[in-house]
## 1
Amino acid sequence: MNEELLNAWIRLSSVIKTDQFVSDMTYNEAVICNLLYRNLQRPDSLRLTATDLCRETGMLKSQMNRTLNDMEKRGLIARERSGKDKRRILISLNPSRIEKYERQHQKNLALVDRLLDQVGREKGQNILDLFTQIADTAQQMLA
């Protein structure tokens, strides 16, 4: 069963990283935008740094910096120095370009909705619970 589970995980990861799922940006850009967007939605929204994003995504610092540079050149994100600590560079979605991410996000939600229609809403809830448990357990084991 271990081999089959690993193969299913890899297959799902490959499907998610396809152009159909994140057609307007790279997969890493979509993940970063998702973190920044979710952070904006929180009432206690904090400004995130590249280090925060690395910790959340598992991306290497060099890969993160390269991705952020590309995103900044295209105007997807904005960087600014912290007023309290000039060494900290805070990253946010560019307010004038949030709609680009929101379009991609809505497409992804529609895809998830179609998937849930196919597998069933009750199974979808079970999958959510299982994914959450697996993520939490893996995070504890690998910390």
## 2
Amino acid sequence: MSKTPKSRAHQRTREDHASELAEDYVEAIADCIDAAGACRVRDLSERFGVTHVTVIKTIKRLEREGLVTTEPYKPVELTAKGRSLAVASRKRHEIVYRFLLAIGVDPKVAAVDSEGIEHHVSPSTLQRLKAIADQHQM
């Protein structure tokens, strides 16, 4: 068992959960912009299976955090900070996905599982997952 005090471990988990939604949204916004040239509230509503109102509330939070900009009836844009977070999140996601494939997880299951795991992996663990995934890729 780790020597990390339980309170520190739980604190990290709470922090991971707090950033999870922002990471998912900026990654989705980046995907939409890359695929279609723009991202609208309805795109996010459809992707996440939530209401238009839920997306608008989340976008307002992301705007306060400096991750996106938007105006009524206009597409959602990523700031430089938002784009950077999207790139980092996408990279973590890809590493976790490749690791799961390397250990024999079915690709469909790996795609779903990597969506959650990516948010809770420490940099040192991610580095080890990448090393294993890279070895398997050879």
## 3
Amino acid sequence: MGKASVQAEWQPLKRVVVRRPGMEAFFGLLEPFSSLYERVFSLEKARREHDQLVETLRRGFGVHVQYLDEIILEAAGRDPEVYHELVDRTLATMQFAGAGARRARKEFAQNLQFLDREQLVQVLALAPMISFVKKKGARSILPFTTLRVPLTNLFFMRDQQAVTDRGIVLARLAKPQRRRETEITSFAWRALGEPPILQIKRGTFEGGDFLPAGDFALLGTGDRSSPAAIQEILSAGVGFVEVGVVHQPRHPLLDAPDPMVNMHLDTYMNFAGERVAVGYPDMLRVARVDVYRRTEGGRYRLVRKTRLLRYLEVDHRFQVVPITTLEQLCYATNFLTVRNRRILVPDVARNAEKVLANLRRAAEANPARYHRLYLRASVDFGELRSTGAFFPHKPLAREVGIEATQVPLANLTGAFGGAHCLTCVLERS
């Protein structure tokens, strides 16, 4: 295996890291809103969808797919230092409170050597605390287990880091529910022998806001990625000749902002191949771009400002395949490019009914905010269904040579993400 590095989204995919949704997702589904999920979904079906995505990558395209947990567990099995660090992290994460807490913690430390390594990783993801309430009688102790913000989004492996032309840039996630995720992924990268080249210290940054495109790259800034973090990346995390910093646009059909609708750059645009992009034109037209060029001294200097659609079509001669409002909401751009003009894309048509039903409920609860968006999506649904032109089945997509393999992700997209979000691409050739 080579060094973790990505120069362009359309380079042949070689190495990917994923995480199958675990027990933490079960607890997330008990309260989807605070878990940052779009809607409730079947965990069993979501796991089957994840398995099918992995199988398609492995058997269909020969991609080397690794599981996050296995990276840690295999390293802990062969390297005593990694194992001891895993034990120490588990001991620091597990908490006890109430009568008998000191005894329980001492016994837990002694018993760690007998636990399966899988159990240790599960403790890191769930962050349990056991509180004891003592009653009358021998061993009449009631243990109440509380999970201290389990990492319900850990299976979205795109966001904890960005893999640039220089290596792994460790993110600093914006939402407190997700902040601990990088503690686990950074541990895994070091165990894999791929320590991050940069760890974001100022502001916040998430990997869904990074799209490399050969001689340039895009970095999104907005609700999830802050200007301070972007400047930190420009100073030490990338080496592209040019970087376009894209300011998150407000959805044109929302009077009040809802950043979840386009939380990351990859939720409204993506690169399907060399000089080929797919995007939602209503956002691309208004999204502001600050263009930075790399100087001979290695620093980036702001050289001009423009809009994203013009930047792609005029400055870099990309053909942009447009998608509708409904398709954008159905994660049409959250595809994974496996090689030039060959993509793995969520089944947008299958997602549409669930997304539309969820949007209808939002419009009924808050018509002033979501009614216009719901009306436009409803019209799109009728037109797309009658013509059979849900992405990727569009004439222009065929004309520019996009070949697509659709993967069923109707449940996993309920957590606000598609094939792109679910995969951490470590290496392209």
